[in-house]
UniProtKB/TrEMBL annotation:
Lineage: Eukaryota, Viridiplantae, Streptophyta, Embryophyta, Tracheophyta
Subcellular location: Secreted, Cell wall; Secreted, Extracellular space, Apoplast
Record's signal peptide: 1-21
Name of the protein: Xyloglucan endotransglucosylase/hydrolase
Enzyme class name: transferase
Length: 281
């Protein structure tokens, strides 16, 4: 019995020695071997790269966000698309707008979704047509996005709210669902560059995508007349006391919207391409 167990010990020892010889057990520096996925300032590496400190505190929500969100559809019904913005963590004040999508995103080829973000305004474009402009007014304060941003594309399950307010859930019998992204264009002022930030901003402010010429305003009005189905600006149920200072179109009368911000108009669904002047790209 004793002899058998000694043999086993010896075998294990030999195995361990062989493993130690095969593996490089020297530490991998944090900047060479690891990439932080999230955590921001709560993840701090030591100067020599040998250790990392993770800090726990109360989460301060201060992020900025501009969105295009395709809200899916149910069989036989058109798609809806939503735009939204948050600034400095203003997630309690969602500025959502929803529209009938005048195109079928799954079959009618590639569509272009664009956002022009300048210090003075934000313009959302669908296939070259401006569909929403948020003009910055001083009383918006930090609600107007002003931090360096990056582009983030994803697909997620919004069953709790997206399709008819959460009435229709994702049916995973049809999974996997796919969102295809191509031809990403990103241009503007590089947040990490200190070279000529003013010059860059002037270029941005005077760029075609940021300047709302009268013809573009007309195209935007036309789109909104036809396709806007909801705007937080008119939602007196969700926002009993909150006033959005940039909502300057209330003079046009609230009577075409329900108290909860939904348009009373029967909006048109159309598969015809959007109309816009060739000068607008
Ligand atoms: C952003 O929000 C924080 C509080 O969450 C506040 O202290 C700060 O002043 C805000 N920044 C701006 C630019 O409004």
């Amino acid at each position: 019995m004793a002899a058998a167990s000694a043999l086993l010990m010896a075998a294990l020892a030999v195995f361990a020695a062989a493993a130690a010889a095969a593996l490089d057990t020297s530490p991998v520096p944090f900047d060479a071997g690891y990439a932080p996925l999230f955590g921001g300032d709560n993840l701090v590496r030591s100067a020599d790269g040998r250790s990392v400190t993770l800090k726990l505190d109360r989460y301060t929500e201060n992020h900025d966000e501009l969105d295009f969100e395709l809200l899916g559809n149910r069989r036989g019904h058109g798609w809806r698309v939503q735009t939204n913005m948050y600034g400095n963590g203003s997630t309690a004040r969602g500025r959502e707008e929803r529209y009938h999508l005048p195109v079928e995103p799954t079959v009618a080829g590639v569509h272009r979704y664009a956002i022009a973000w300048t210090p003075n305004n934000i313009v959302f474009y669908l296939d070259g047509v401006p569909i929403r402009e948020v003009v910055r007014v001083p009383s918006m304060g930090g609600d107007f996005p002003s931090k360096p941003m990056s582009v983030y594309a994803t697909i997620w399950d919004g069953s709790a709210w997206a399709t008819d307010g959460g009435k229709y859930k994702v049916d995973y019998a049809y999974a996997p669902f796919a969102a295809e992204f191509s031809d990403l264009v990103l241009s503007g002022c590089d947040a990490s560059s200190v070279a000529d930030p003013e010059g860059c901003q002037v270029d941005l402010l005077t760029h075609d995508v940021a300047v709302m010429a009268p013809s573009k305003r007309a195209a935007m009005r036309g789109f909104r007349e036809q396709y806007l189905t909801y705007t937080a600006c008119r939602d007196r149920v969700r926002y009993k006391t909150t006033v959005f200072p940039e909502c300057d179109d209330l003079a046009n009368g609230d009577s075409s919207f329900h108290l909860w911000g939904e348009s009373k108009k029967k909006r048109r669904r159309s598969s015809s391409p959007l109309q816009y002047s060739s000068s607008m790209q």
